[in-house]
Design a protein that fits this description.
Helix 1 (22-27) links the parallel strand 1 (12-14) and strand 2. A two-stranded parallel ribbon has the order 1-2. Helices cover 30% and strands 9% of the residues. By secondary structure, the protein is α+β, with helices and mostly antiparallel strands.
Length: 70
Amino acid sequence: SLRVPFPNLSFVAVGGVTAANARDYLRAGCIAVGIGGALFSDPTMPHDRITAHVRAALAACAPESHPCPT
């Protein structure tokens, strides 16, 4: 854990973050996550699928006490 040697730093997780694991990073203490490749991995992906991926990512990152509207 990087929190032990750097207790006063805030962390943002990037690289390998997906809608499925984003909340785990936030629960572990990250203040934010960057989700890129998991959303836009296929350049031919139709707009509606991109929208669905973005909504899933937003829902995954929403605070548990304030769910993100869909």
